[in-house]
Amino acid sequence: MEFKELIKRRRSVRSLQAGRTIDKETIEEILRDTQMAPSYRNSQTGRYYVVCDPEKMAKISNDLLPERNRLGSRNTCAYIVTTFVKGIAGFTNGAADNELGDEWGAYDLGLQNAYFVLSASDHGLDTLIMGIRDAQGLRALLDIPEEEEVAAVLSIGYRDGEPALRPRKDLGEIAFFS
């Protein structure tokens, strides 16, 4: 798919088709694409916890997401919990390189998540990134180490219908040239 077509097709999808699955190989291919995202000094601190087990998926949906996200991710094929390792991106010898500190890890993970959603779209899949979640519950369920910051839960599946493109701000509101 052409890049411009791909970025115009990608949406945050809250209505997924029931009864569909995604094979492990497809998710692995999407994650390999995700690894191509740039990161601070190539630190590659993003981590992806892929949840396909029906019991764990039900636990995430019922107990670890608020109602809006639970409803928006209904019929998901998998949940992908994204984290980053703290204290690496944005640091040299344990000291923060600037005022952003660990925010560089979040920035890098955001870039990786962008690659993830674009690769998923290129594979005919759709995603929803959910930042409102129970981080401690996810950490306990998936044995996520304390040195990792839980950032988001991504839902992945096949869209049920065609979501409308929401309006974008005028370029003059977001871009400033000097």
Which characteristics define this entry?
single chain; 178 residues; alpha+beta; NADH Oxidase; 4-stranded antiparallel β-sheet
Low-confidence spans: none
Under CATH, the topology is which? NADH Oxidase
The class by helix and strand makeup works out as: alpha+beta
How confident is the prediction overall: mean pLDDT? 95
Distance between the termini: 35 Å
* CATH superfamily caption: NADH Oxidase
Largest sheet: 4 strands, antiparallel
Helical percent range?
Answer: 25-40%
Treating each run of at least 4 consecutive H or I residues as one helix, how many helices?
7
Any idea how many domains?
A: 1
Strand line-up in the sheet with most strands = 1-2-6-5
What is the H/E order? HHEHHEEEHEHEH
Instruction: Write down the CATH class.
Output: Alpha Beta
Cα-atom Rg, whole angstroms? 17 Å
Strand residue percentage: 15-25%
CATH architecture label name? 3-Layer(aba) Sandwich
DSSP, total strands: 6
Please, could you describe this protein's structure?
The chain is α+β, with helices and mostly antiparallel strands and 178 residues long. The protein has a single domain, classed as NADH Oxidase (3-Layer(aba) Sandwich), CATH 3.40.109.10. It has seven helices and six strands. Strand 3 and strand 4 form a beta hairpin. Helix 2 crosses helix 5. It is globular, with a radius of gyration of 17 Å.
